[in-house]
Design a protein that fits this description.
By secondary structure, this protein is an alpha/beta fold. The chain has one domain: Rossmann fold (3-Layer(aba) Sandwich). It contains 10 helices and 7 strands. Helix 6 packs across helix 7.
Amino acid sequence: MVKIFGSLLKQFWIHPLARSIDVNDAHSIAIHRKIIQSKPLLKATYRRWYREILMAHKEIENLTGDVIEIGSGAGFLDELIPELIKTDVAPNPFASKIVNAMNLDFRDEQLKAIYLIGVLHHISDPARFLAEAQRCLKPGGRLVIIDPNNSWTERALCKFLDHYEYFDDKINDWKNDSANHMTNANLAVTWVIFTRDRARFEAQFPQLHIRIIRHHTFLSYFLSGGMTYRSFLPSITTPLWEGFENILAPAMKILGTSMTIDIEKV
């Protein structure tokens, strides 16, 4: 019944720009940028995520080295970090470099920061990426990952929206060889690596020290319609909803759909 409702919602409430695009097609990136710019609540949600990045970025201002974003997609983090090198795995009109996250085209200790927003669960072998991040980051450099949280909210929305990704927190292997650039990705994998399997992560990557894990973003992304749907709220309500989510901050470990993993190379 839930999947039927999700299919009907997708049929009748889909954003006009998203109706005919293939999310695995690089041409969808330009359309996603238009969707972000047209929705105040969606753009505000991106800015909320960017504030998570900026908290770490300000702490490494005096560190030398390059700053990269993996899988920059249609985002606009470069507006806040002008020196950012935006990378993607496929041609992207808003990125300056095509990069395979599992084989980073950077020298040892060349980077002072690596940022990923909604990307790690799309990487088929996260351990290979983490090994590359450990190699390329210089001591004191930061790896900041924003990805789905294992909350009842996130799990329910994944089912409710008939999503092209899935949520499985019972996996034994972090790898997902069937994951495409966007589709068939396991939304739970980041929580599995850094929360459920934290001891394994720390043993496998001893130079990557988790400074903090923060949980955030209740329903703002969903209510904005994301990249697929029309907004469920009028744009005038954006400040009110942002304030409401701030009030809920103490409960975000349970309610939040997103989590930030702030990691320092030691």
